Amino acid sequence: MRTEMANSEQTLKDTMVLLSRTPIALDALLRDLPDNWTHHNEGGTTWTVFDVVGHLIHCERADWMPRARIILEFGESRPFDPFDRFAHQRESHGKSLSELLDEFASLRTASLAELKALNLQSFDCGRRGRHPALGVVTLSELFATWAAHDLTHLHQISRIMAHQYRTAVGPWSAYLGVLQCNGHSS
Amino acid sequence: MRTEMANSEQTLKDTMVLLSRTPIALDALLRDLPDNWTHHNEGGTTWTVFDVVGHLIHCERADWMPRARIILEFGESRPFDPFDRFAHQRESHGKSLSELLDEFASLRTASLAELKALNLQSFDCGRRGRHPALGVVTLSELFATWAAHDLTHLHQISRIMAHQYRTAVGPWSAYLGVLQCNGHSS
Q: Mean pLDDT throughout B85-103?
């Protein structure tokens, strides 16, 4: 039990470090990049890099800390509000990618300040809430998912960008794993 | 023909912008991150994030600009030197991740300076060389592959890191695409 508690404290610390890195890493990768990289998708109704950053912003507003607050206040008695996977299309309309990157960085900073101020202890991380589709989840799982969600979208962004060079790489496509990825991370 | 020429000039320009971003994005994401993120692999003999950065360094020394030089000097008459996918294990030994990030950034800056100094014109991008396994390839394909290779490893890095939270996310694993990725990008 003691080990598990230590692990969950360590996990939260590691999670927070990673969460603080995502906005600056995306900024370094994407700001002022040619539109060929950021405003083209993988065909059909798939997302562009611009869409993905908009989605990260919407999650920051509607998902992570709001869900943590619901768990802390209501436990399993109140399920999370349903999440709108397409809200970003409305919210990002007319904005530039630079504006989205600024907005994401600022929201993430605020989320992490709020999380830090909660001063959660190991036993808090085991507190349970209710996901409308997945059922019972813990606060600790919510925070781990927050970090893994950043990574799933970094994974997706690298795939969307690589897709733009699918033809340009010629025979090397056989060696480039990212071009074999089937889009499970959309 | 004119359109193709314009495209290949545009592609080279877009490629160079992306290539300049990778080291700073990796630095922003990875420097001083807890070892749990950077020194754990996906099991067995798979690579850690540390290994991947070492591999990017080796490519910078042995692959991209050296191959461009071979194409420009020898065309199809001299195949590229074979590439050692495991050289980084020897070369990174005893170094810290911070040292690797510095080394990668410095080599990439030098590569891009060399590429810029070549002052390649559109018609140069069609020049042909010989890959020991893939056969005839063009300079343009080599440069596009350089960028897509950065992206394949960013894709891999995000997957390796997400793997560390495979259990911690609990039932949310079903929603996280990166956890379904089968490692095609190693």
A: 93
Strand, helix or coil for residue A64: helix
- What secondary structure letter does DSSP report for B80? P
Alpha-carbon gap: B182 to the closest alpha carbon of chain A (Å): 8
Phi, psi of B145 (to 5 degrees): -65, -35
CB atoms closer than 10 angstroms to residue A135: 11
Closest residue on chain A to B171 (Cα): A134
Please indicate whether, in this complex, the C-beta atoms of A151 and B145 are within 8 angstroms of each other: no
d(CA B129, CA B145): 14
Q: How far apart are CA B127 and CA B145, in angstroms?
A: 15
Q: Give the tens place of pLDDT for each residue, A105-117.
A: 999 999 999 999 9
Interface of A with B in 16-45 (CB under 8 A): 17-18, 21-22, 24-30, 33-34, 36-37
Instruction: Please work out, in degrees rounded to the nearest 5, the angle formed at the alpha carbon of residue A114 by the alpha carbons of A113 and A120.
Output: 105
pLDDT of the residue at B122: 81
pTM above threshold 0.80? yes
CB atoms within 10 A of CB B23: 23
Residue B99 has pLDDT above 70, yes or no: yes
